[in-house]
Write a structure and sequence with these properties.
Elements: E1 6-14, H1 21-24, H2 38-41, H3 44-47, E2 70-73, H4 85-92, E3 97-100, H5 105-113, E4 117-120, H6 123-133, E5 140-144, E6 149-151, E7 156-158, H7 163-171, H8 175-180, H9 183-196
Parallel strand pairs: 1-2, 2-3, 3-4
Antiparallel strand pairs: 1-5, 5-6, 6-7
Length: 205
Amino acid sequence: MEAFNCVTGIAAPMMAANIDTDVIMPKQFLKGIDRSGLDKGLFFDLRFNQDGSLNEDFILNQTGWLGASFLVVGPNFGCGSSREHAVWGLKQLGIKALIGTSFAGIFNDNCLRNGVLTICLSETEIQQIANAITQRETNTLQVDLAQQTITSADNQYAFTVDQIKKDMLLQGLDAIGFTLSFTREIKQFEEQYFARNPWHRTVQY
């Protein structure tokens, strides 16, 4: 995965509560045999009109918020079914981080496993950021994972993040990659364990 350290980019507000994974990635985009093309499916019913044309009222289609790197979202973002396609689509569209008050549990885990940073702030802080980014002149944020800060046009916010999650994102490691980073320790444990319990060693044929 791509490492996340310090990213500066456009932030778009999507402040409705309980935006679920069916809104993020409608079910018709779950039929593929690979992950390709999910950027088109992301927020499909919001981004496009019924005739297939762009919905110019949707924030991600508006001049000034095209190519957003961050979404500032309402509470319980990512609720609903546990479709990982929703996170794959966010990544393919270029979303690096989601900033809100709360995220659905499985969706939050899927974000971590796919390199999308989720940040929880207070309602007051989220509203302050949302107010700022509704203006094109102030809709850029800098998210510094190493320092655990978000910097807007007129303020800076500190956030907390689980240390393991932070380490994985800073190094660009998924769950398998993170586990393999402890290969030496794992082998050392195996050697010590089998030395104490030789009858557990796998029989070689």
